[in-house]
Sequence to fold (754 residues):
Amino acid sequence: MSTVHNLGFPRVGARRELKFWLESYWKGEIAADELLNHARILREKHWLLQRGAGVERVPVGDAALYDHVLDALVLVGALPKRFGLDAASLDLKGYFTLARGDATHHAMEMTKWFDTNYHYLVPEWRADTAFFANPARLVAEVREARALGVAAKPVLVGPLTLLWLGKAKDGSAPLELAPRLAEAYAGVLDALAAEGVDWVQIDEPILALDLPAEWLAAFAPVYQTLAEAKVKLLLATYFGGVADKRELIAALPVAGVHLDLVRAPEQLDAFLPGWPANRVLSAGVIDGRNVWRADLSAALGQLEAARATLGDALWIAPSCSLLHSPLDVAQETELDVELKSWLAFAVQKLNELKLLKRGVVHGRGDIANELSASDFVQQSRRNSPRVHRPEVAARLASLAPGADRRDSAYPARAAKQAAWLKLPLLPTTTIGSFPQTAAIRAARAAFRRGELAEADYQAAMREEIALAVREQEALGIDVLVHGEAERNDMVEYFGEQLTGYLFTRHGWVQSYGSRCVKPPVIYGDVARPHPMTVAWSAYAQSLTDKPMKGMLTGPVTMLQWSFVRDDAPRSLVCKQLALALNDEVLDLEAAGIRVIQIDEPALREGLPLKRADWDAYLAWAGEAFRLSSAGVDDATQIHTHMCYSEFNDILPAIAALDADVITIETSRSDMELLSAFADFAYPNEIGPGVYDIHSPRIPAEEEIERLLAKALAVIPARRLWVNPDCGLKTRGWPEVKAALANMMAVTRRLREKL
Ligand code: GLN
Ligand code: ZN
Fold:
């Protein structure tokens, strides 16, 4: 019989329980035992829930307290040396010190897990990194699961993925650690075998990347070492196709392979012919990365084809771990019923797997009702006037070639902008937000609960805007912002005012540690029925003679930080967003806002996993940005802003956005990033962040001066702006005023010297 299994499950709980327990523990409100006890009860509940939903092999070991990559390091005894901690005797305090740092250690670095919004802790490698099998915790969890009668399938981050994701701290080559790391993994597998575990899932998502030849060559020897243990290995690949590595994968001594058939359905055809008899092939047919109810008929079609070749060696699974999916649609009691009927979160996805198994084993007739319900959902999405707005499609279709271009090239625009802006050398500005104080958040919450009348809320936000304007004028900043007091979140604020967006109450997804995000869902054609920011910006402009900068979130970031409909290409959704934003840009301009910033902090993270797909992405993403900013007068100055990313490899694409001014985060990299812009001869104006806004520390004038001197060494003064790294919403007013005062003092001094 084909087996239904799951690759991983959301960890934080239906109401983010784990988040709140973690935070209570960190604040010292609950003891370690209490936290561990809560976490145990939660993971047991999740195991039973999965079993109840029909999962026949339940993932165990994936329910990390903070991060599964950190757990993998503990499992093989490879903690970063600088902490002086021993994995074998690691307690909770030590575990969280690794994750969050303490007075004497900075935390392990964090970065995004492939192309998800989950952040893992980056392993730190040295030539002398030692490994040992440290399976106690995993073994204990396996016993715990079995005591509940749950068929436990331990899940491990694979050794080569673990190595790849880390950084060498001493210039050594991490791959050289592979043989010793493999020994430690074999030790872990031996311990699991001794427990009577039969199957172990071992995740090697790096197989979906472009891997250098020496990394590919490492798979055979590493897996030879692992194969010595008496367990069956299920090698899990996901987030992309691995057909290009079929020969390599088929030759590995593993008992099964998992394929992501959502991201890369075509790879099934590459794997089926000649697949070794009795070797399991796990078909990931339910989307673990998105929120839509599956098209069961289509998924069943894939499974039927696979089963004809594989028989019972076909396993059925989600495309990847459900970590990236919210937990349970049933909690969304306030959502419109039709929209809700289109959604499936983790719990619903497991149910879909169970149905698919019945369908593939007993025939379509066995799930006839469910199939017609699924077909009905597909049809209702296909035909719904809520999804399809003919005017949006018509507008996109009628875009003239070059519609994404400004009237003139940058030099001509710059002259016209300079003529009215009359900015001094080294113009100063900020990135958009000013402190989101407790009072602002309280007013918004009261307004949402209906306890504060709309007019009173508006008045309160106007007060905040007026305050921000006064403070900026007092500081002497040149291009002002209104401060974004009225915005809950830079994506949600816009999504709530656009068509085609829905919002959940409990659709949280873990971002890192206790942090979760609740991405909005784009279900239909996007349009902008009404101006979104014009009244606020116009009010702010009315308070000052200085130029007021309008502030919008760009189309790529709106796309990237949402769950996106799966019935249209992302490029198309992005262009719809761009046109909606362009309406806003033109309305802002008409209202007298002639400096407009369109934030794109997520441009880089949208890059596809495989290099071969980069150009196509950058082409449509760039076009979308330009579309959003097109049609304005040459004299209107378009800014963009990007943060937390390395841009070196996409500089041509950033230049192609053709923003008049770009502000970027650079202070934490000591302006290193800026040199890349200089080497590339970035043509337009640029504002490298001169201080780190992530820390409450007030930057000294000397530090800012040093960074600006570095910037002036590589960028001509007439193209250089002065600004912080990013928005100031997470800071308090006293810090903000002091930091900006220092920034202004340095700028004034420098202007005199230039
Ligand atoms: N304008 C936004 C702000 O200032 C930009 C935030 C971001 O780049 N992440 O908060
Ligand atoms: Zn930023």
